[in-house]
Inverse folding.
């Protein structure tokens, strides 16, 4: 059996292809450009810098609470199915025992409604990494930090 449960959840992007993010350090929201998988323009990174406060965090630290809710909600269904499959597998190997999948068995995690992404914030392009544009609240555009290298710039 494969122990890994893969869950793919598509998060909504705004009309320009930006994904909303929340900084784990300053708790403020911004957006980064969501490159397609395999996009040669995407900068390889092991951490990102918050464009608003300049503090870096790991790649998976930027979820907004609404996105986490969406991911966990979708994960619920996938985990549910994986547990059912696993139990069916276990019982298959036992002689004299039959396991009937019971559709009422559920981990009972609700799937939230899809998120709606609004077209707010202003787009800025770091001069050092113009292929990694950002969107920040208008009042924060005076001083922004590059997502990739953390260099400060003004929009
Ligand atoms: Zn921050
Ligand atoms: Zn940069």
């Amino acid at each position: 059996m494969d122990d890994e449960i893969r869950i793919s959840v598509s998060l909504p992007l705004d009309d320009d292809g930006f994904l909303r993010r929340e900084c784990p350090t300053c708790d403020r929201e911004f957006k980064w450009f969501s490159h397609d998988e395999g996009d040669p323009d995407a900068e390889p990174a092991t951490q990102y810098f918050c464009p608003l406060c300049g503090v870096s965090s790991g790649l998976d630290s930027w979820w907004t609470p609404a996105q986490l809710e969406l991911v966990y909600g979708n994960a619920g269904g996938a985990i549910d199915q994986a547990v059912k499959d696993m139990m069916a597998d276990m019982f298959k190997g036992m002689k004299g025992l039959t396991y009937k999948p019971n559709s009422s068995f559920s981990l009972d995690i609700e799937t939230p409604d899809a998120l709606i992404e609004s077209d707010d914030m202003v787009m800025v392009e770091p001069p050092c990494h113009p292929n990694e544009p950002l969107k920040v609240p208008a009042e924060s555009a005076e001083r922004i930090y590059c997502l990739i290298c953390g260099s400060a710039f003004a929009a």
